[in-house]
Hints:
- By secondary structure, this protein is α/β, with parallel strands linked by helices.
- Helix content is 35%, strand content 24%.
- Helix 3 links the parallel strand 7 and strand 8.
- Helix 2 (88-101) packs parallel to helix 7 (222-244) and helix 5 runs parallel beside helix 7 (222-244).
Amino acid sequence: xxxxxxxxxxxxxxxxxxxxxxxxxxxxxxxxxxxxxxxxxxxxxxxxxxxxxxxxxxxxxxxxxxxxxxxxxxxxxxxxxxxxxxxxxxxxxxxxxxxxxxxxxxxxxxxxxxxxxxxxxxxxxxxxxxxxxxxxxxxxxxxxxxxxxxxxxxxxxxxxxxxxxxxxxxxxxxxxxxxxxxxxxxxxxxxxxxxxxxxxxxxxxxxxxxxxxxxxxxxxxxxxxxxxxxxxxxxxxxxxxxxxx
Length: 245
């Protein structure tokens, strides 16, 4: 049976931790755990700790770390750059699903047609924490501060495969999955805002050797396109690994 799974940034081997009020309340009042019972803790950076409840207080539960495992990050890191959305709930939905799917890095973008530029970093971080715990992973996606597309070009140079998904007619556009199967590691996909990337942004990306790609035959909302890209990025990695074995 899986142990209850919680997030804590300050895990130290064989140390005692005082958990925050939200986690303490859930452990003591909801799960009704008692002294001596075990749980798992992760810091979202590859650490999985086993902890035992020392003092089950509903506001400041005290636990003792009894063991730690460390997991390396995935060899194939996947990233998505996606425009902020007018409706923040839709952006949160994308974040949740991208985290559950194991996307390593998420870059909120400010594009020419981005309508909403306000970004609540802590709220978005909390969405990622919840998704991390739901999917029982030890690595949480890195969520960057929003950046303009123009400023992002230099930042994205490290990625070996760079794609821009857009809705314009383009004879050079290929299916994203086909490109992922043919390419190398470190893939990045850019997803535009409601109304798509502007023609100038698409041209600028292609001039920088971003490959134009399609996510299917239907026109998708931004958040749906982001999740579709996340699924294809992960499937592409699995398919490539299978073909080599």
